[in-house]
Amino acid sequence: MSEKVVRVGVAAIIRRWPDKAILMGKRKGSHGAGTWAFPGGHLELNESVVECAAREAREENGCPLYPNQYKPLTFTNDVFETEGKHYVTLYVEADYNPEVFMGRWEPKVMEPNKCEEWRWFKEAPSPLFLPVQNLLASGFKLWK
């Protein structure tokens, strides 16, 4: 019999300035395939939440932001009933301002087995990954 555990996920809400669009990727190859989600992944042993966010975003799409540019926000309790998975997802946010960087960064698919594409959104796309659905259902305002 396999042991049931609650896993910790970290999601990075990256806002581009000045238009305040939010970066989301279309998941593939795991639970939530075909849904839109923020960059993120599993928190590793001895890793801070902001270190995890920066690492995952860099691995997934080449994001140039550093851990000190992320700030903690909130969390969701996410039960994927059909998959038998349970996560607590910790959210952090960071602003990407192209004027601060030498040249404009555009996200690239760095893990094609996990993500179909990355896009900037000014409103919620559909369908959304369960943790993002839960975040919005909690009253959190992503697109302000």
List the helices and strands and how they pair.
Layout: E1 6-16, E2 21-27, E3 36-37, E4 40-42, H1 49-61, E5 71-80, E6 85-96, E7 115-121, H2 130-137
Would you give an account of this structure?
With 144 residues, the chain is α+β, with helices and mostly antiparallel strands. The protein has a single domain, classed as Nucleoside Triphosphate Pyrophosphohydrolase (Alpha-Beta Complex). The protein contains two helices and seven strands. Strands 1, 2, 3, 4, 5, 6 and 7 form a seven-stranded mixed sheet that branches. β1 and β2 form a beta hairpin. The radius of gyration is 15 Å and the shape is globular. The chain starts with 5 loop residues before the first strand and ends in a 7-residue tail after the last helix.
> How many β-strands, per DSSP?
7
Order of helices and strands: EEEEHEEEH
Which assembly state applies to the chains in this document?
single chain
Rounded to an integer in angstroms, the radius of gyration calculated over CA atoms is 15 Å
Specify the CATH homologous superfamily. Answer: Nucleoside Triphosphate Pyrophosphohydrolase
Helix and strand composition category: alpha+beta
Count up the domains. 1
* Regions with little confidence, pLDDT below 50 for 5+ residues: none
The CATH class turns out to be Alpha Beta
How confident overall, as mean pLDDT?
Answer: 94
User: What is the name of the CATH topology?
Assistant: Nucleoside Triphosphate Pyrophosphohydrolase
Total helices: the number is 2
Beta-strand share of residues: 35-45%
- What is the end-to-end distance? 46 Å
Q: If classified by CATH, what would the architecture be?
A: Alpha-Beta Complex
User: How helix-rich are the residues, as a percent range?
Assistant: 10-25%
Shape designation: globular
The description of the largest β-sheet is: 7 strands, mixed
